[in-house]
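dude i think i finally got it to work??
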Amino acid sequence: MADQAPTPYEPLGEDWRTALAVVAHPDDMEYGAAAAVARWTSQGKRIVYVMATSGEAGIDGMDPETCRRVREEEQIASAAVVGVDTVEFLGHPDGVVEYGLPLRRDIARAVRRHRPEIVITTNFRETYGGRWPNQADHIAVGRATLDAVRDAGNRWVFRELTEEGHEPWDGVRAVWAAGSPDAAHAVDTTDFFDTGVASLKAHRAYLDGLGGDMADAAGFLDTFGRMSGERLGTRYASSFEVVPLR
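look at this
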């Protein structure tokens, strides 16, 4: 029996103005979602980046404290390429992020502070495409983000946030997880593909230390961008799992 063609993606809605992207590491947004961010900021939307860690365990040949500074600087520069001018780091330890109340509270605080309509994260499923195991930090941060968005709207969860002056925010319409194997939606990034590549290339020290196929920014993004684009009916696309909250 011939393999069935993949189900076509539905276009993502773009009737929103503000988003918060919460991911585990510097570079997580750049491996597939940065071109989408460039599209959205070109439309006048405001997007803020929040990194759970500073990626300080990400370069084998670099001391973590030096790496922390380098990777934060690279992430700020990378975000600027796609029109994001606010990047925050929560300071959780790279490589050993734990799902739990402290992480949920920190993300809920960010949601209350920035009050987005859409929250973006990365794949929180166990695998990529049912084949490659996901990384533990990605799973922990993605799942905590999904829960923290709901925490942010509940006055009686993390009451200390209200005491800090952060009023509840229940205005998040959906969480979008980039690169999820359960993605059913995508956005056309054809006109912003090169910008997305430039954003990933801004992680120069990380890519140099990484090596292999994932260090080839243009080649890696081309492969996966075309795969998503084929299912959307465009040259390039970024795919997302949509978790509606309303």
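The chain is about 40% helix and 15% strand.
im so relieved honestly
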